[in-house]
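Quality-control log, excerpt.
Job 1 of 2 completed; input and output follow.
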Amino acid sequence: MVHHLSYWEQNTWLEDIDHAVIGGGIVGLNCALQLRKRFPEAKIVVFERGMLPNGASTKNAGFACFGSVSEILADLETHSEEEVIALLRQRWEGLQFLRNQLGDDVLQFQQLGGYEVFLNKDRVLWDRCTEQMEYINQLAKHAISTEKNLFLIKNSSFSFQNTHKEVIFNRFEGQLHPGAMVHGLTRNAIEKGIYLLNNTEIKSFSSKNGQNELVLDGFGVIPVKNICVATNGFANQFLSEDITPARAQVVITNPIKGMPIQGTFHLDRGYYYFRNVGDRLLLGGGRELDFSAEETTENGLTSLVQNKLETLLRTTILPHAPFSIDRRWSGIMGVGPQKKPIVKKVAPRCYCGIRLGGMGVAIGSSVGVQLANLVESK
């Protein structure tokens, strides 16, 4: 179906576009805001194919984190020590930038600390993590310039079942509200005169002879000067990069009387993660049950993962607290063989900031800024 725009609509939103940002999540909005700083008079339009961000920006668990001990040890198997320090530094600095940008009140940020919980069956992993914890703390100190140890061993004060009696505590981990985060970024963008077009899908784009064009579903071809791709797990629609979509499924309970859990938690090598949201319990994960099925750009739920999440709640996390599920959803991340995001020029006046590796809350703002800073001034 072709939509016939009025002259006023075409003239206001889709003509003389200096910077087209594809993707209206945390990366795209930060990219647009940084472009406004660099180019005060430019016309900047953010195109988002969903009513709300379609990837993971408003569908994640709201962890303000930068890695558990077991995750960092796993990263050291595929990254150098210097690369891991750089990853931790980028996550830490990205979170501080986000907090300074919007403020903790807007983000509903709470630094309650994080806990890595170990199942009884994971005794070998526990031993390895605790043996290497001092080494990991030294890496973290290099990354975030602190004299304090990031990770500590604590006795578990939680009534979990089938878990080790001690946990590894992360003193700096926090939690926030992803919806409030994106709403705050959206409000800032509107105040800065940035155009936001939701429910507008870019089918493709081309860069030929110095001229860039977007093909909008139902609206035809739109010429633009610069293109910034910020679609993360959906990027393969436009680009040939080493990135794989990764769906994450989540559940949240109805309010639980006397909610026994406060903070953020990582379980079973980080394959599962949970936190309190007020007096509710949010739990996500389960991709390892069938990695291939979750390598998709289709939002949806599977009985395999959903049953596992409910079983974990019932048998391990909330064994003594009656609960019921209020809502279920999924989000699409972008992952790859390396945790390093892909931020680069891909064609004349075309750029991308993608592959956030499940750390979008921590690094999305800084990736958006880096993406905008690539755009050439002439």
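Job 2 of 2 completed; input and output follow.
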Amino acid sequence: MSEAADTLDDMALNTSPDAPLPVGEVSRLIGGWIDRLGAVWVEGQITQLSRRPGAGVVFLTLRDPSYDISVSVTCYRQVFDAIADVVSEGARVVVHAKPEWYAPRGQLSLRATEIKPVGIGELLVRLEQLKKSLGAEGLFAADRKRPLPFLPQLIGLVCGRASAAERDVLENARRRWPAVRFEVRNTAVQGVNAVNQVVQAVKELDDLPEVDVIIVARGGGSVEDLLPFSDEQLVRAVADCRTPVVSAIGHEPDSPLLDLVADVRASTPTDAAKKTVPDVGEELDRVQGLRDRALRTVQGLLDREERGLAHALARPVMERPQRMVEERESEIDALADRSRRVLRHLLDRADSELSHTRARVVSLSPAATLERGYAVLQRPDGAVVRSPAEVSADQELRARVAEGEFSVRVSE
């Protein structure tokens, strides 16, 4: 440092209006002096933040509200990503950085190697780390969520004593379903004893077999007030419950870790009552609507079937059913007559053909020849004599005539 100061002193002594130093030389000398500085911890408020998609460097501006002074800060993306979920513009942070001098523009900036939130930001970082750790174990997985029963007979309620959250849950639930019953456990909902008392109440209600749903409810508050409902012990106790759990912590923007592990997340205690208990008026209207719909459906079915039956009865065959039998009877009679005619015709034709065939056979028969006075001579062996040369004298032959046969002898 003393050497840098001596350099600046020498520079001041060796310059004059007639022998000034160029701006670039002065900037270079300042840069050389700043380069000798080591890394420092700097506290300030983020006023500008630039995270360009795909860029490996993040640009931000730190401002000191007391002196209204700002300085540019650059860091690698992985440095900023470690606290990106809990840090935004306006947050107070502590930065470990080395000063750098950009000579062409004569601009001072800081190169950050570590960024830590201050106050509530640091708390949010720890919660974010716990959230990632429990999420990696699968405690927040959607397939672990259990559905709520349609109409719970007994509801377990964990809340502060005589709190607005207790009143909101009880009044809204009983207004929706007057017969609903509650098993209430009053506990501390903030402070050092809150976690142990809430965990014990949840376990007691989970051990009661008649309890169908457990509601953990609390009104709104600061991040510090809601810290017990992000405690790891409570989150694991709810994850181990056999009974479905409804988380109703704070208001809509509040999101403790209990919301993530619970089976159902309600934005407010009133919303928890609405999600847990059905509205008797709405259910009666739904039942009446279903009855009306069923009646219309049955009536429509009956009307359709009645129209179909009337249409069927209006057909001629239904008005005079015997008409179909009569029509078929006449058809059968016609077919029977036709069959008889065809059969008679076939028989007549066959008889005629048989008569003609018989006449031809008779005309060609040897018996017809014999009838006309002819005779047939046969040798003893039955052979017919056709020529005189086939017989000899004194040979005995048989003569066959129309009325019979007799023997003859050849004389010569």
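Post-run check on job 2. Residues 322-364 form the longest helix (43 residues).
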